[in-house]
Amino acid sequence: RAGHPVDILDRHRLQLKSFSSKPSPVKSAVFSVPSYACQRRTTLENHNTVLTDALSLLAENAELSDEDGRGVAFRRAAAVLKALPSAVMSISQLSGLPCLGEHSLRVIKDIWENGASSEVESTKVSERFKALKVLTGIFGVGAKTADRWIREGIHDLHQLQNSGQTLNRAQQAGLQHYDDINQPVTKAEACAIEEIVEKAVSSVLPGAQIILTGGFRRGKQTGHDVDFLITHPEEGREVGLMPKVVSWLEAQGFLLYQKTTRNSYLESKADGPGRPPSNMDRFERCLSIFKLPKMEKQGAKDSQNVTENCLQANQKSDEPECPEAAPDRRWRAVRVDLVVSPISQFAFALLGWTGSKLFERELRRWARYEKGMSLSSHALYDNNQRKYLRASSEEEIFAHLGLEFIPPSERNA
Ligand code: DCT
Ligand code: MG
């Protein structure tokens, strides 16, 4: 994070003051950006974190309150500010920018004039928001469940544990590994897991390939989970792969929890153009909680064999009754998502699983409203030509969509 919010604001104001007291020959230029996030290059270098953090918090609150429309509006506004080449120096620079609605502008002005947004500040301390955050921090608990619990008077983990609520298997695991799962996953940890999954995959199907997707593929240094896409260069060889990978990982003691869902995608009328677009894809997918042995003093990369060390560590560890409570625990729990795609859909899957979430949403919106096409993580369908457009790389998909290619590191909308 670039500096403390207050410092940044003060710096902005100072600069602004010098603008107004001594009219500078260089006026701060009005920004201009295209309106779809997938037309813009958004790196991780954000010059407006004070504003984007505020708008993102309101987006999160809206999403947790089942107000998706408002959530997207705030996400889009934040994304526009993330794409700006420098810090905003005056409100007038924002005129003409897309996606900044009345509400978002009010928040920005409030921060500008008062140093903070009263709406953001009151949301942050609201009991409801705090409870929603804590409860949805449990793996397997979504906004709806959290809302129901809150209405039943449950606001924190302690109250939940004493409530007699029945938890499903995912939620039990989520509660058990709560602290670990809510601690960011580092790039080094993601790389260590990549090595393990790679070993699993090549052991059960030589020639199969894995790629790290999600935020880490976009260059982020931390994430809330680790996402992998698995495929095989020969179409059809990937069938039945997931259960084998999961069995291998389970046998080696790497999984604290897993739930696999079957591939249910068919390129027929059921999933084709007649169907409303859905952002849920239907790949064979495994949602898991990984047991990652703590890396002993060595660079994650220099280890000639992370996997070997992990295997040994897992074999050494005797499982205590309450695993998270053990003080000298030599592992941590990490959320890992595995997805298997046939090679024919791989480019779409890769594009769809690289994110960011808003970038993906904008790609689908662009496809639909600007191109008359339906894009999913499986395929691209041209509604006018009434045919699927094939692609074997992300570049080809951008070309089909009439968009300039944006590399993963610039999809951080
Ligand atoms: N995705 C999407 N729409 C969703 C959920 C996910 O398009 N509703 C895609 C985009 C990102 C990718 O899947 C992985 O999802 P996350 O792990 O939630 O996102 P992330 O960018 O990897 O974030 P983090 O770094 O926090 O894991
Ligand atoms: Mg992720």
Structure description:
This protein is of the alpha+beta class and 413 residues long. 44% of the residues lie in helices and 12% in strands. The protein has 17 helices and ten strands. It has helices spanning 5-21, 49-64, 68-82, 102-114, 118-125, 127-136, 143-151, 157-161, 169-176, 178-181, 187-204, 214-217, 241-251, 306-316, 346-354, 357-371, 394-400; strands at residues 185-186, 209-212, 222-223, 226-231, 255-261, 284-293, 331-340, 373-375, 380-382, 387-388. The strands form three sheets. Strands 2-4-7-6-5 form a five-stranded mixed sheet, with helices on both faces. Strands 8-9-10 form a three-stranded antiparallel sheet. A hairpin with a 4-residue loop joins strand 8 and strand 9 (380-382). Helix 2 crosses helix 5, helix 6 packs across helix 7 (143-151) and helix 11 crosses helix 13 (241-251). The two termini are 16 Å apart. Mean pLDDT is 89; it is low at 1-8 and 11-25. The protein binds 2',3'-dideoxycytidine 5'-triphosphate and magnesium ion (MG). Residues 214-215, 223-225, 227 line the site of magnesium ion (MG).
Question: How would you concisely characterize the structure shown here?
Answer:
One of its GO terms (cellular component) is nucleus. The protein has 413 residues and is of the alpha+beta class. 44% of the residues lie in helices and 12% in strands.
Class from secondary-structure proportions: alpha+beta
DSSP E strands, number = 10
The assembly state of the depicted protein chains is single chain
Cα-atom radius of gyration: 23 Å
Count of helical stretches: 17
Shape: globular
Largest sheet: 5 strands, mixed
Spatial strand order of the main sheet: 2-4-7-6-5
Distance between the termini: 16 Å
